[in-house]
Structures are given as C-alpha cells and as structure tokens.
Amino acid sequence: MLKTHNPTRIFQAESLFEAALNLGFPAAVWRLPHSHEVNLLISLQDGMQRRLPDLEELPACFVIHPFEPLESGEAFVLEGDLIFTFSEDWSCKEVAGNLGQEHPFVKRLLEKADEMSDENPGGTSSWIGFALNPEVDPEEKNHFEKAVTEAVAAISRGDFAKIVLSRTKTLTYSPEFQFFKAFKKLCVAYPSAFVSLVNLADRDEMWLGATPETLVGVNGEGTFSTTSLAGTQSALENGALVSAHDIRWGQKEIQEQALVSRYIIECFKKIRLREYQERGPRTVRAGNLYHLRTDFAVNTHDVNFPELGTVMLKLLHPTSAVCGMPKESALRFIKAVEGYDRSFYSGYLGPVNVDGESALFVNLRSLRLADGLATFFAGAGITEDSDPQREWDETEMKCDTLLSVLR
Ligand SMILES: C=C(O[C@H]1C=CC=C(C(=O)O)[C@@H]1O)C(=O)O
C-alpha cells in the first residue's frame, strides 16, 4: 500500500498525467464541484476493465459509461492503482493505491514523470488552444433542424412527450495542444462544474469536460443525491453577466424540466421509496448558461437502503435530461434520426469509492480528443413548443461553454 508519499519526492500532477499518457496507462484527473482539490487516478493496466457499475462492490476507481447501455449492463472502469490528491496550489497532499513504490510499473511511471518534468520544469510553456475556427457546416445544421421538426411532429402525434436531440462540432488541434492545461483552465473558469480529463488509452482518445449535472452521488454520510437539470438560457447579455434574479422562464422550459423531475420521481416510485427530499426548481448558472434545477436527496441509513445509489443508477440512466420521455420510444427515435454514435457523450462518468464517496455526473459540456480532432457534443431538449433554429442556437451556446475557454 502506497500511502502518504515520501516527502523528499515531489509529485507533479501534469508530469504524472503526461507520463501515464506516454506509457499508455488509462488515467483520469478531476475536480469535484466547489472543491479546491484535484484527484489524479492512474490505472497501471493494459486498458480499461469492464465491470457492473455496482457502487457497493467496486474498488476505488473511475467509471465511464457510454450513452447507450452495453448489453452486459457493464461500465468501463479505470482501477485506482495510484490515486494522488493535490491541493489548490498543486502540492501533493496524499498518494494512495494498492501497489507499492517498488512495483515495476509504479517505478516506470515515476521515472517517466521525472523525465517529463525535467523537460518542462514547472510546465511554464504558454497556452496553445485549438488551431482552427470551424465554419458552421450547413449540412449539419440542416440535418439537426430537420430532426427537430420531425421530433416536434412525433410529439404532436403522441409518440413521446419530450426528446433530447444532439449534434457534434469538430475542430482541429495541433500536436502541441496541452491537454492538462486545458483541464486547469476549465477548473478556474467553472468552479461549480465537475471538471475532468480522462485518457482512454486503449482507444487512443481523451475526454475533457465541465459538466453541471449530477447523476448519482453517495457521500461519506450515506446521503444519496441526484438532480433534474433542464431548460437553458444564455447567462450573458452583450458580454455582461445577467443576474439569476432577472431570469424568467417560459412555459417550454418549465415543462421540459418538470418532465425530468417527474422521471426521477417515477424511478423512486418503482422502488417504493417515498422518503426523498426535493428542493427546487431554481435557477442555477453553469458558466455561460442558466438552467432550472431540482435537487433530490435521501438519507440511505434512515431508509435502510445502503445499495440505493446502485439501484437508482440503473433506473435513472439515461434520464430525460439527455434522452426523453417515455425513455424507450425516445431512444428508438434518437437512434433512427440523430445519425451518429454519441459514444460517451450523455453517458456518465466519475469517481467511485474514492475517499469513501462516489460522484457520477452526466457527461455533458464535453469533447473527445482523438487524432488531432476535437469533437464537441451538445444536445437540446425538444418539446411540442420547440423551434428548430432556437434549438440549434442552444447547442451552439453549449459548445461555447468549452470553446470560449479553450480557443
Ligand atoms: C443535453 C445537454 O444538456 C441537458 C442539460 C441541461 C439542459 C438541457 C436543455 O435545456 O436542453 C439538456 O437537457 C447538453 O448540454 O448537451
């Protein structure tokens, strides 16, 4: 067991992450909402494991799950062979893990990290953002707007009450693009988001994001939490921040968010759980946007339901904040009409059993980095009152959450 590190050794988060990347080890670095600490988990394995997302059974790990459930019901798991905790000033507070410092892979990683920090002491090189500004692809826009029109027609026919349709936006990035600095910039820009950078080594891709949406949280006191998040408005007017008090919501957004809350309450009903606290909806800011949010909480000790997190995770994903209601018909429509594979976008990700807590977030406001291409993903909730152009503009604003910081 590697616990509380040797004080003579200086662990540098950026060099460790770069070393994992270089050696092909899966790794995840994250900052929880409103936290001043950053965790870095490195899995010294060949690739990700596939395990059931059973929060009571899993070891300390980082879980990432695609939008579409795998037939086996499994999720991808990065095992916490090494977990570093860094303070706000990036000094290393603690190292935990299940392998000793003498393990050959640990030695290799630490040596590589030393090499990397010698090459780039203090990581001072200036910021290099994305290389190309994209033109809006008219075909992509037409495709999305046509899908919205079809969805509105399907809602009027009664096929479903709400659906979330999404799209991508692709930019190039140069080989010098600094992944870790991008993560740091997002941490500073979005203190209330879950900010993460995940290296999926066996797929040669990374995911970077700053999501505002908790899917399932189980804290050290055994409190289960989830949120209903929907409805979107710009938080900026002529470049200045609009106060939350001045935000008014229309019928469309109120209904859209109420459907997500109803979906969550139906999940509680399925397991006959009535003892949940509900707070909201209220206006919350997520960077450049405002949303409506309702928070749900349950004390799992009081209801004698220690496995509530696992049970609700299975029932909730994908919620109607990313899929639709009813779920099955919305999912069929998405597969038939959206026209691309969402992959990990609108799936979920986060640490499980790290420091006695699990915190899984919906993978929103995120992008995939692979082969010099940065693919941004964004969706919008469609109801009977949706206007295709406005929904497109909403997805542009959602892409801007990351783009405005990383450009
Ligand atoms: C699907 C996304 O956002 C969801 C979360 C908040 C608001 C949403 C909306 O207003 O449509 C979406 O349901 C996304 O960011 O890609």
TrEMBL record:
Gene3D superfamilies per record: Anthranilate synthase
Domain Chorismate-utilising enzyme C-terminal: 141-398
Listed transmembrane segments: none
Organism domain of life: Bacteria
InterPro entries on file: ADC_synthase (IPR005801), Chorismate_C (IPR015890)
Alphabetical list of PANTHER family matching this protein: ISOCHORISMATE SYNTHASE ENTC
Protein known as: Chorismate-utilising enzyme C-terminal domain-containing protein
Species assigned in the record: Persicitalea jodogahamensis
